[in-house]
Amino acid sequence: MVLLGFCTKKCSQIVLSKSFAISHGIGPYAFTLSLLTNDELLNLNQNGTTPLQLFRDETKAAWLNFVGSMPYIALFNLTENRAVVSAELSEFTDKTHAEEIWSGEKTAFTKTLSAKIEPHGAKLYKLI
Length: 128
Fold this sequence. Notes:
By secondary structure, this protein is α+β, with helices and mostly antiparallel strands. It has helices at 11-15, 18-23, 28-37, 39-47; strands at residues 2-3, 6-7, 52-56, 60-67, 70-77, 83-88, 97-100, 106-108, 112-117, 122-127.
């Protein structure tokens, strides 16, 4: 399944999970609407050019994609528990800051971007 410019077997379960919506302080319907109307997300979906799965195992996954020269990274927690998911990015970009698309939260990183992610949740970052 292709979703938001990234591919993974359980995208709809991960991205649209109830726990993810709750953890972001929004109900499932409001979350779905915010997902479908997010300009940044729509831009990535429509203009992302080179999706690359960085890794996937039984507990986590990460995908990288670009819109022009702008990199995006999606981190997925595939477990039943809150988990930290990390992706080594220095091979793909020299960016050192990331903005989470849904919350707008900004974070700095050196070589590895890490995030605490709710069960079956996801975080999508624009690297800036």
